[in-house]
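Milestone 3.1: sequence recovery, worked example.
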């Protein structure tokens, strides 16, 4: 397998193409390391990696990599028992309970989720909320607990007013935090009780209210993808190919990843993938091609699972091929 992989990468370099592959880490090399440590129940390494990533540099991605480790709730409980005064294990336990809750609920539509599944889902999210509030009180400068509360709030349907307060608490601590803004964008989507108008307004205000070069321009692209996704066949293509939508995407790109102050790093990979998909659907092959090249073949699940939930890489490849090389 290693030989075949090396041959594939070599072929990609030789042809000038990138070999598409799923990147669960959004370009953050430490995410894979912390995920492996969590799978192995190696708290020493997990703690070392998490403590080395300051809250100011967004460690929510690393926390979610730990939280997604199946069965991690067992060893996390042991860690908490061994050091009951430590705050980081409480945060990790809360994040794990969020993922554990979604494992019980599954990704099925609500009508296909049993009453017992919903019961377990809500119980685990409620426990996560209790711990997240504890962490927020003990570490008032941390954004991670407030981001976690945005996620639990949507699952527990706390309502728009409470959700907004949690978002505001998060961005008071990190004004340009992409994940916090992504959660609030979902909150104001039509499918979660908001509206298309509210969603687009939030996306533009957030993107252009931030300095040039942040990742928040992605919100404009995501809003257009959400709107496209909500429409029936035919209407969706007419919407996403509207000249005003394309102009909006180009303006957001100029203010974001095309801005001279844009800095590559963890989380930026998803920005390039999102604009690649949006420009491809909008019919701007040149802009899409530039974004595909910037990904270097690294595919993020979001937003490609909107097209193919079972195989995001296949969706990526298909649209990459349509843009030409």
């Amino acid at each position: 397998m290693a030989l075949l992989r090396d041959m594939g990468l070599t072929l990609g370099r030789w042809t000038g193409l990138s070999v598409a592959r799923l990147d669960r880490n959004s370009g953050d090399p430490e995410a894979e390391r912390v995920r492996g440590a969590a799978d192995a129940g190696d708290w020493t390494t997990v703690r070392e990696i998490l403590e080395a990533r300051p809250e100011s540099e967004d460690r929510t991605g690393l926390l979610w990599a730990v939280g997604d480790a199946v069965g991690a709730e067992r060893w996390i409980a042991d860690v908490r028992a061994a050091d009951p005064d430590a705050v980081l294990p409480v945060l990790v336990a809360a994040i794990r309970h969020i993922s554990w809750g979604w494992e019980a609920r599954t990704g099925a539509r609500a009508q296909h989720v049993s009453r017992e599944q919903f019961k377990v889902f809500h119980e685990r999210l409620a426990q996560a909320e209790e711990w997240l509030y504890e962490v927020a009180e003990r570490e008032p400068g941390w954004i991670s607990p407030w981001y976690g509360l945005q996620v639990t709030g949507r699952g527990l349907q706390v309502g728009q007013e409470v959700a907004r307060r949690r978002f505001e608490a998060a961005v008071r601590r990190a004004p340009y935090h992409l994940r916090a803004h992504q959660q609030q964008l979902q909150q104001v989507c039509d499918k979660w009780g908001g509206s298309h108008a509210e969603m687009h307004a939030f996306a533009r205000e957030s993107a252009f209210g931030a300095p040039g070069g942040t990742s928040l321009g992605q919100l404009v692209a995501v809003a257009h993808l959400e709107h496209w996704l909500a429409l029936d066949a035919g209407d969706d293509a007419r919407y996403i190919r509207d000249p005003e939508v394309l102009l909006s995407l180009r303006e957001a790109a100029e203010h974001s990843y095309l801005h001279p102050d844009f800095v590559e790093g963890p989380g930026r990979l998803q920005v390039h993938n999102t604009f690649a998909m949006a420009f491809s659907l909008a019919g701007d092959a040149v802009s899409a091609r530039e974004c595909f090249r910037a990904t270097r073949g690294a595919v993020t699940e979001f937003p490609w699972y909107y097209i193919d939930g079972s195989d995001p890489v296949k969706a990526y490849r298909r649209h990459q091929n349509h843009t030409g090389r």
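The chain is about 70% helix and 0% strand. Residues 115-138 form the longest helix (24 residues).
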